[in-house]
Structures are given as structure tokens and as C-alpha cells.
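[User]
If only I could read C-alpha cells as easily as an amino acid sequence. I have put the entry right below:
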Amino acid sequence: MPVIEVYPERLSRFLGIDVDLKQLVNDLPWLATDIEDVGENFVKIEYNPNRPDFSSHPGIARAYAGFLEIKLGYPEVDVAEPKIDFYFNEELKSIRGVLCSAVVRNIQLSEEDLKEIINIQEVLHQGIGRNRRKVSIGIHDLDKIKPPVYYIAADPEKTSFKPLGMDRSMTLNQILSEVDKGVEYGHIIKSFEKYPLIIDSAGEVLSFPPIINSELTRLTPETRNLFIDVTALDEYYASRALNILLYALSDMGGSIEAVRIIYQDGSVKTYPDFKPREISVEAGYIKSLLGEDLDNTEIYRSLLKCRFSVKNDGETFYVRIPPYRVDVMHKVDLVEEVAIGHGLWRLTPTYPRSVTIGSKHPETVLQDRVRMVMVGLGYTEVFNFIITSEEKNYHRVRRPVTERVRLANSSSTELTMLRDSLLPCLIWNLSLSRHEKYPQRIFETGPIVKAEGDKGFSIKLSIAGVSTHSSASFSEAKAVVLSLLNSLGVEKPYFEKSDDPLFTPGRAANVFYEGKLLGVFGEIHPEVLELNGLENPAIGFEIELDSFINKCSKL
């Protein structure tokens, strides 16, 4: 969980009133944060990763001002018309194909401000950015740039510049092998022939995303105007990361100015996108979840205190969500906000109607058993999202697109459907960790969702594992499957040739027991390895566990 040290004097600057340490210790937990430590002049709080706006004093002050009723409702931020054009080269679409940008003018940055900006940037890189793979942010001294600005695909051997913190010019490949940030994040782009680069009209390099900025545009306390670039794989999260940063910079005294992104086909997009989302929630729904009989006036004011804009139409509240609130995705999230605005200490505690002794669900008992077996076989457990995409679930593993459970209103190309197999995401995990040491053996157990036409869908429990190293073979996969099945009381499974396109023909088998198909295992097809950037052979298996849920408790 991320933490931040909150200093009363600095927080008071953004609140507009004086607060002391004792008051912060008493109040901040009611904003759904936890007190980690209290120092002589600070309180260290832990906050949920889904609240990256809490990574700075301005962000905390924005929420705290509502709690104290100093400021209520939606925090508006003005955006000036764009003066700078940012040109997007089409070659970047297949490398790092999303670009957002903005300008901040007339900002006076203290040393504390600079440190806080860097902290916000790193929190966004780790959380929303998934360690820079999904989103990365560059912040530059605008006065050292000659617009317009260009986002180009550069030759890694023919392009050089002086990276931040270095005293000499280096090629892009040298940066990846000799500079700490290059070594740490180089795996994100190493598989491409060309690398993303941001330059100005004079040909000066501003940034080598997602790796490092140029020394040329380093921020200092003398910096008064900022140029911000966000490169990403997903526009929704790139735009939200930019919004979180811009709201903090606005609270620090900066004026926000839009930037035009101009594409080669002549289309234009303008950022930032501060258009609010709207979610409706019924008063009855709020009261049923909270167990409190709140009237409409109290619900209305509670939402205002959490810095939302609210309209009430009888029993329905229409709530506008500020662009920096990436955590509010469903009306149930608004119920939590009502609880915070109303006051968590004011909720009435109730005892359960019945007293029972809890025990593990048979499904959990089964999962625990197979986990122990897999760990004993040298595998490491991973956890993936149940929501995935056709690209990962089908295209990258050579499986044909079939009937599936799709999301109706997906806001991301990476989250479009519910997984119907665990193996594709495990192979994607190997792709992301291909720069790590070998052998690599990972497994996952969890639900998969099978579409069943007019019947809707069914949820099944599954386990899958993959192993990659120089001598991975069919025999290894079979041995793992037999060990797993033996632990589940399966004494005489039988096998038949499998034609699953994820596996190499003739090196894969289906597993049967008592006339029922349990799963598949084998050597992963060379084309799948190539599609995922894997150089070593790999094997995999997947077994459905539903048949063993009740049986396992008797073993």
C-alpha cells in the first residue's frame, strides 16, 4: 500500500486554513486512510492504490477541504486554448500508440513542490502505469523547448542525447544498457526495431519514453512553465493519469493550457480531457447497503463533501465525477463516498442475526490443496484479472475467436471480455518477465467463464501452469499433470492426442477421467512463443477442477 508523509504546515497552504498535527491524526482516518506513523511534525498515512490523487498534499487537501466543509462540490479547473502542436508519427501506433499532453504556465515551484511532483509521477507510474509499461509521464521545462513538438520512432543506434543525470551524450541502446532507468525499464521496448522519442522543432530530444527524460529539460526551482507528455498503451488511463497530475499542479498555482495532438491523417485531439463522467444512484440502494435511513438532503450533502457535483431527481441522484477520481467506477463506489461524507463514525454498528462457526468452502479447500502441490513442484503462484481481451485470450495464442462473454461498455481495449481459459494470461506473464532468470514456472487457480449461447454462461474452477527453460518438454508437462491428478485421487487417467492450436502438433494431449475431459497439456507452439517474444521452449497445462470440489474434502 502506498504511503505519504503529511505535514500540517504544507497541507495548511492548500487548505487555506491552519491545521495542526493532532487534528490530522484525528481526521485523516475518516477519509479512508490508515495512520502508519506519527512524527514530531508529520503524520504518515497509508492510502488505497485506487486513490493516486492522495499521492500529494494538494490531492489530500482537496478531499480534506470537503470533509471540513471549507469547499463543497465539484472542483472546477479552467483550461486555456492550445498554443502548442504535438505531431504524432504513425509508426508509433504499433510501439507505444497513445499520446496525451498539456502545458502548465506561471507556476512557482519550491524544492518541496519539485519533490512532490516527482512523487506523484512515480506513484502514477507504479499504479495506473503498471510500472511504466502501460503509462509513462515526462515533465519538462517548457522554456527550454522550441515548439512544435514531435513524437517519432527513432533508430536506437543513430539517435543520441544526454539523458537526465548524465554528463555525456548516449545512443538509445547505450541508455538501455548503461543507465539505471534504461536497465530497469528497457524490457518494455527492447523487442521493437525503433524506439519512441520526443523532440522539438530544433531536433533537440526532450524524452525517451518510457525510459528517461533529457538533461536539457530538467526541472529546477527557477522553472515557471511546464510541458507534460504522457505516452501509453491505453488512452483512458493515460488521460486519467494526466488529469491527476494537472489538478495537483493547478492547486500549486499553475494555469492549465491544452495541447493539440496532430496525426498524420489530419485528425486532431486536444488534451487534457476534463469532461466529467456521470453515474446515477438511487437513494434506496444507498440506504440498503449502508443500513442507515438517510434522507435525501443528507445524501446530497454527503456527496458534495466528497467533491462531486450532484443533481437530485426524486429518489435518484445524478453524480458528476471529477476527472482525477479514477476509483469511482460504479454506483456502489458512490455508496462508499456517501458513508465517508456522512461520517464513518456515525454509521450504526449492528450484530449479525445469527452466530455461526465459519469454515472453508469446499472450493477453497480444493484450491489450497492444488496450490500446495504446485508449490511443491517448484511453481510460483500468480494472480491475473478475470477480465482480459481477445488479443491475449485468442490471437496471441493462436486460438480461434469463439463465443465468449463480452463487456458491454468497455473503456479499454485490454479489458473487453471474461477469460475462458487461464493459459493465455500465464503465457502473457512469461512474456512480461522474459528478462528475468530462467527457469520460470508459474501457475494460477481461479474461475473461468464459458459462454453457453442462449443459456448465458457458466463459471468453472480451473488450474493452469506454464514452465519455460532450455529443456522444457512434453514429458515434463505430463509428469506435472500426473502429480497434480494423483493428489486429487485420480489413479488411472487416460490421454488422447489434442489438436489445440496453442500447442505443438503431436506434442499435446487431452486428459480424460471416467469418460470426462479434464483438460489439456503439452509443448507450447513455436509460433505462440514468437508472438509473445519467448526464446526458450515452454510447456503448459490446464485442468478444470469442478469435478473434484466435493471429492477433495474426503481425500
Remarks:
- The two ends are 38 Å apart (CA to CA).
